[in-house]
Every structure is written in C-alpha cells, then in structure tokens.
Amino acid sequence: MTKKIVVLTGSPHKPGTSEILADYFIKGAKEVGHDVSRFDAGHSKVEFLQVDEHLNGIIPQDELDTFFPNILDADLLVFVSPLYYYGFTAQLKAVIDRFYPYNHYLKDKDVMLLATGYGSKADFQALVHYYESLSDYMRWHDKGQLLLNGTYLPSDVGERANDAYQMGKTYGL
User: Fold this and answer.
1) What is the residue range of the signal peptide feature (predicted)?
2) What are the backbone angles phi and psi of residue 71, rounded to the nearest 5°?
3) For residue 15, is the peptide bond before it cis, meaning its omega torsion is within 30 degrees of 0?
C-alpha cells in the first residue's frame, strides 16, 4: 500500500553525511511506490515559532508554511540530522517547534530517526531521548532509528547507507 512520507532534513552541509542517509531512504521508499516529499531545513528559510498573548502559534509566511500541508497529510515523518551538540541541528529543531499550532493534527503518525555523528554511540543518547520523548508527547509510533557514529565525512557513511535504503524500502510492508 502506498504511503505518504515526508523526509525532514536539518543538515547545512551539501553533500553531508545525513544527506546521504536521506537520499538512500528516499530511493528505497520510492522503489516500492511510496509518495515521498522532502523538506531541507538546512537550506530553506524557516522562521522561528512565535506565540501570541493567547498562546496561539503565529504562522509565518515562509518556505515551511507552503510545505506544511505535506507534513499534515503524511503517514510517516522521517527526521534526518547530523548530531550537533548532542541533538538535532537548530534548523531541524525550528521546524519541529513550528508543529506547535498543529499538534492535534499531527498525533498518531509514524516516525523514524536517521542521524549521523562523529563520536561514539553513547553521544546519541540525548538526541534519542528527545526524539522518544517528543514521540510520546505527540502519540507518534516509532518505526525505526538509524544512528551512524563515526561519520564525519560523507565517505565515512559507506555501506551503512544501505540500512537507510532498506528502511525506506520496507516501511509499511
């Protein structure tokens, strides 16, 4: 069954290690017929969340605003980021913060996490904790995590990119 997938990337590097994972995931997902949309937060103009005096999210007119219908309509959200100071990049976090006015509409989605980082596996603990806490809060369903340590240069990803490809290819089967 065809699924609607949104891949949200946060890397400011092009090409970068996490960009490779996103590319491979998308290739696998498209091969089995999924409808995939991608938003590259690291290369887009995304305004920060603002909230008015009534605690309503103010929706800025920017590139994310025009892409947001894809996020709302998605069956699966895939968060792809290099590890920056033990978390998502600021660019991807700004996208997540903009979910605020839409929280009710975003509940019960499937999610995945793909991340790269130069350090050890232990360095991903804070990112995974945040991702899992956010998933609990939003009532999301974790469908997989791919955490690649030791990835500083794109060449460091190597054959491990195939794991992202398989995640895309097998989602929803």
Assistant:
1) none
2) -65, -45
3) yes
Query: Concatenated DSSP letters for the chain?
Result: ---EEEEEE----SS-HHHHHHHHHHHHHHHTT-EEEEEEGGGS--PPPEE-TTSPEE---SHHHHHHHHHHH-SEEEEEEE-BTTB--HHHHHHHHTTGGGHHHHTT-EEEEEEEESS-GGGGHHHHHHHHHHHHHHT-EEEEEEEEES-SSGGGTGGGHHHHHHHHHHTT-
Rg (CA), the chain: 15
Residue 153 to residue 27: CA distance in whole angstroms: 21
Phi, psi of 120 (to 5 degrees): -90, 170
Which residue do the tokens 């991807």 mark?
Answer: 92
What average pLDDT does range 67-90 have in this prediction?
Answer: 96
For residues 138-145, give the mean pLDDT. Answer: 98
pLDDT of the residue at 14: 82
Q: For residue 111, what are its two tokens?
A: 């999610």
- Which pLDDT score is estimated for 24? 96
Q: How far apart are CA 145 and CA 121, in angstroms?
A: 12
